[in-house]
Amino acid sequence: xxxxxxxxxxxxxxxxxxxxxxxxxxxxxxxxxxxxxxxxxxxxxxxxxxxxxxxxxxxxxxxxxxxxxxxxxxxxxxxxxxxxxxxxxxxxxxxxxxxxxxxxxxxxxxxxxxxxxxxxxxxxxxxxxxxxxxxxxxxxxxxxxxxxxxxxxxxxxxxxxxxxxxxxxxxxxxxxxxxxxxxxxxxxxxxxxxxxxxxxxxxxxxxxxxx
Length: 211
Known about the structure:
The chain is built from 1 helix and 11 strands; from the N terminus they run αβββββββββββ. By secondary structure, the chain is mainly β. The protein has a single domain (about 25-210), classed as Porin. It is elongated, with a radius of gyration of 26 Å.
């Protein structure tokens, strides 16, 4: 009897140990929950003009492969001469919303992630009249508009340290059409293109947290 019980106990112990090592992990299990905050900046096109864009987001990382949270971006285009207004003008604004992100092979030194943001934003078309120097200028908001945005992207990430990642990103921003129109000489004049905010952006983003 003893010869039978001892081998059975050994096999049971090994089986329990193997089950523990291969235990199904839920998204709330153990050490699978982390989080990060990120800031970045880059280049984009706004109303077909060169523009700067600044990004920020933060979220919870589940199972090292999936993140969810909130993010946003702000942008400003170069001041360009608008003949209808006989002044230089710029389109600036921002947007924010919720994002989800798929992280592929996140523990590898170099890997990819695929964030998608859905949100809303606002933009303002501002004229600039130079009063003699760059330090003497007058800005005036001609029109404002709101819009919805859907922005998928891809990021090439580098694990610099355990708590810091550097990423190069490429996003494409699908924005709803905007209507920025002004009455000039009793005629409505569109100051920007309806799809002025739909374009790509590319830049660098810094991520800090527990991944």
